[in-house]
Amino acid sequence: MIKFYLSVFRAILGISILLTALVSCVTQQDYEYSAYANLLEEEFECGKTEVSYAKKKDISIQILGDSTFMQGTSCGSIEDVFLKFTPVSKVYNNSISSGEILNDGYKGILKRYDANMTSDYIIIGGGGVDLWKCGEDVQCHNKTASQMLDKIANFVIQNKINPESIVFINHSRVSNNAPISLRLATVKGANEILRMYQALESRFKGSIFIDFTKLTGVNDSTMWKSDGYHPTTEAYKRLIVQLLHSGRF
Q1: 127-149 exposure pattern, b = at least 16 Cβ within 10 A, e = fewer
Q2: Nearest residue to 58 via CA among 95, 102, 31, 89
Q3: pLDDT per residue as tens digits for the range 176-232
Q4: Residue range 34-245 in CATH 3.40.50.1110
Q5: Which of 219, 218, 141, 230 is nearest to 173 (CA)?
Q6: Domains of the chain, residue spans
Q7: Three-class SS of residue 208?
Q8: Under a CB-based contact definition with an 8 Å cutoff, are residues 92 and 117 in contact?
Q9: How far apart are the C-alpha atoms of 240 and 249, rounded to whole Å?
Q10: What gap in Å lies between CA 200 and CA 152, rounded to an integer?
Q11: Distance (Å, rounded) from C-alpha 120 to C-alpha 59?
Q12: Tens digits of per-residue pLDDT, 81-91?
């Protein structure tokens, strides 16, 4: 009798694993063969600034972040990718290199918000530099993430920003080629920064959070600059496809 129940249990477990694999496979296929996935195959034509793969609409975006959003010059930058691959017509990138959420000075990410700028959408990212300062100190990560959550929440409320216009974007991890100190810091702080942005997404109904690392992975060299912690144009393209999937534009 025991053998019978064990065989039944194994059969059920095998079916469960098979179904999980099939669901995973279908989800991946849906993403790869969607209406937007073909954009990932498009080559960037830097010499042709007028090239666009989307019909333009009167849509503007303001970006508040760190150097994650500042890679590339005019060609291959996040602004360029937005303008070439989405209906967006204006991109105001107010990001700053080495920007911090908790900084109230020149390097303060949220301080760079321009309330006089008409924006249909606002991208908010960053926090990696704040957590990098914590090293491997878990308590510091917890405290810093909590302070950043409060600061971003207050920023949204005080500026009366429509939650449906907000897209939170952040790398929870860096690539395996990044400096070891940064890799260790992000490993320790990954869960905290994920929980922080997920909490913000939950609090401000209608906003969305995209974990950039889920799109880039940590081992794909085409997604990361040689320093191991800044995204490439190909990574930006993957981000754009994810945003298009969200139905934001």
Answers
A1: bbbbbbebeeeeebbeebbeebb
A2: 89
A3: 887 777 777 666 667 888 899 999 999 999 999 999 888 888 888 889 888 888 888
A4: yes
A5: 218
A6: 34-245
A7: strand
A8: yes
A9: 10
A10: 8
A11: 6
A12: 898 888 888 99
